[in-house]
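Question (not urgent): is this output format expected?
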Amino acid sequence: MEFAAWLKLSIALGSISLTLGDALGFATGLLCVWLTAKASIRNFPWGIVNSLILGVVFLDQRLFADAGLQVVFVVLSAQGWVQWHRRFGPASSAFHGTTARDQLVLLAAGLGMAVLLWAVLEQLRGSAPPRYALITAFSLCAQWQLNRRQVSSWYWWIAVDLVSIPLYWSRGWYLIAVLYVVILAICFHGLRNWQRAQRSIAPANNLSAA
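Got this back:
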């Protein structure tokens, strides 16, 4: 059986029916976010697996723009995997901050990217909500910061979730909306973990410098 056909197999969770691809996409997505909250380098291989699964699902549904974006996320995840390993080490506890200027530049880049994506998606689909383009653009900005172990990445992921939840709920995708509520909770957990770790590292660095 082809991989795409295998992912289309239906499974039931109580009264909820979904495909195996959906279930694997949800499971690997949740695992990736949880590992990121723990600052584990293993979030990257699981993120790649998640993007590959979703890419195949989207490609089978002829959603070429969505499938293409998953390729971008695979590339970014692979880049982050290498960066964390080379610059920080597999078990590093180092985290980085950003300046207000950096965030303003990134915000401008994210908004510009969202406008461009909206135009492209409208051409490919005939119609695409601006919020979808915003979600994608901000996700790319968040991933870019995550690759650099910047605590600010969590604020961007939280913003993505806050936009995604009402969008998916309004379209009747209740299971996906609930999934993003869970992801939102994990993001707040990850933000606290990274902030706590960053604060604990700062005094140690000051002592070693002295």
